[in-house]
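Q: What does the assembled structure look like for these inputs?
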Amino acid sequence: MSLEKETAVKLFEALASGVRLDIYRLLVRQGHEGMVAGQIAANMDLPANNVSFHLKGMSHAGLVTVAQEGRYQRYRANLALMQQLLAYLTDECCAGQPQQCPELALPCCAAPDCGE
Amino acid sequence: MSLEKETAVKLFEALASGVRLDIYRLLVRQGHEGMVAGQIAANMDLPANNVSFHLKGMSHAGLVTVAQEGRYQRYRANLALMQQLLAYLTDECCAGQPQQCPELALPCCAAPDCGE
DNA sequence: ACTTTATTTCAATTATTCTTGTAATATTGA
DNA sequence: TCAATATTACAAGAATAATTGAAATAAAGT
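A:
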């Protein structure tokens, strides 16, 4: 159930900009409520079309989801995919030497199945 | 003790390329042993100077560390910083509505201090 | 000292991404 | 239907990043 590499790269690209990182964290803070595009743009203090450009990239990558509400577009952070991304990163960590993991304090290695 | 936004952006940029993502995951698998630049280049099947270019970016961002060993440069994944990056991402998640967190299955929210 | 090996640096080219402005689409309310 | 609002689409220029090749540095072995 691991992510495709291509998917992971797109997700990191989607996070690799100050604007988009701010947007994502804003949506994480909003939780399930999310925010509509105009609110996000107001919050970012950027032109609406620029924010829309970034939101498009983020939703295309899967980092956020979008739902239409009349003439509004409501965006939400896709936290489930973020979890998969983290798992992808730490997949097979310290392979063969699980005893290294605790000292490196990596969550994957603290798991009971680490090193399997 | 949260990361600076600029630091977080640089880390995501460092992960936002197929080549660098492969390198990072390779180093994660290697654990504390790490790998020297030439081994990494051989593993990536890319020109050494190209790999060096990417490694420089990654180490400048802090994603990996580098230690000189004679004429070799040994690179290791900086897992401690990765942990901080994850914390930065999920900081203040679902602020004010901690009851949303479990259903979103985000690790930060499963923590006992979620919503504080 | 000389040669080989490991790695980095620099410069040039190509490719990609960001921003801005303007126009288009589509929903709502009068 | 008409006007206003929310948002996206498109195009052009500016800014960044990636790749390649050639040269530089620096440690190790002879």
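Chain B has one domain: 5-110.
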